[in-house]
Amino acid sequence: VRAAVGHRWCLDLETRGRTISCVGLGFSPYERKGNEVVLVVPIQTTTGPHYTPSDEHQIWCLISRLAKENPLLVGQNLMYDLDWLLTYGIECNVYMDTMLGFHLMYPELPKKLEFLTMLYDDIPYYKEEGKTWGKRQPDVSVYHYCAKDVVTTLRASWGIEADPRWSTVSARYFNYTNRLIPISLEMQKRGFDVASIDLMSLAQITERELTSIHGDLVGLVGHEVNTASPKQVHALLKERGFKLKLKKGGGETADEDALVELLIKKPDEIIRLLLADRKWNKLRSSYINVELVQ
Fold first, then answer.
1. Three-state secondary structure along the chain?
2. What is the pLDDT of residues 260-286, one digit of tens each?
3. pTM score > 0.90 for this model?
4. pLDDT of 131 over the 70 cut
5. Which residue in 45, 94, 146, 179 has its CB near the most CB atoms, within 10 A?
6. Is residue 243 scored above 90 in pLDDT?
């Protein structure tokens, strides 16, 4: 804790089931690549708690102390981690959320850590290691993955600040976006009032957009296509002569990042419509067709 004070530091949580598997902490005493110091603290293993309750309590107290004494926290999609930390009474001052900072610079590009790592670092692709954490996954695999996330997030934060476009958006990020993080976290925890009639209005807008986008897609393709079906999307892209990206395991993928890469290499209206159709379907299923709590 004492060593990290005064330096930019990173926190990353890995969860398995409904518990925290481990906490990753890291910083660089020289604020540069290759000098990162990373500590991964096990919390819950496949066989139960790693520490006694009193020892685990001390760990959370130390993390809370670090959060209070050092406001230079960076992380990727920190809302997820901060939400978990609040259950332990830990509040953090955020210096930079790399996902939000990068998205502010390049709103048209993917903002996942794997994409930022590709741009700002040379660590080989590893994100497929963490797609699912089941009981069969050795605990040490989770810890290694967490450590890699800490290192790549730190490096992404330095890469973002070295990016020429950062100077054009940094003031907006620190004066607006970053200040909204604690407010957004509070809204996420407490919820907010939503009028049923307003939700119905949003549903109508969403349906109109989806109908228009999907109609354009079907019109260009010449037949119906389910954009949520990997099999149908793969077949459609191959028909148009696109070579699909391969995952590390050897299988083909047409996820959001893969489609964006194809669109960058060769602008294509069908790929743009595929992305738009998926985006609006996600909006409808996650934020519109939801059950309201009285």
1. CCCCCCCCEEEEEEEECCEEEEEEEEECCCCCCCCCEEEEEECEECCEECCCHHHHHHHHHHHHHHHHHCCCEEECCHHHHHHHHHCCCCCCCEEEEHHHHHHHHCCCCCCCHHHHHHHHCCCCCCHHHHCCCCCCCCHHHHHHHHHHHHHHHHHHHHHHHHCCCHHHHHHHHHHHHCCHHHHHHHHHHHCCCCCHHHHHHHHHHHHHHHHHHHHHHHHHHCCCCCCCCHHHHHHHHHHCCCCCEECCCCCEECCHHHHHHHHHHCCCHHHHHHHHHHHHHHHHHHHHCCCCCC
2. 888 888 889 999 999 999 999 998 998
3. no
4. no
5. 146
6. no
- Angle of CA points 17, 21, 22, to nearest 5°: 155
What pLDDT, on a 0 to 100 scale, did the predictor assign at position 1? 65
Cβ neighbours for 247, distance < 8 A, ≥ 6 positions apart = 128, 253
List the structure tokens of 141.
Answer: 């695999």
Hey, what are 67's tokens?
Answer: 């959060």
Q: Which residue has the tokens 């999307």?
A: 233
Q: What amino acid occupies position 243?
A: K
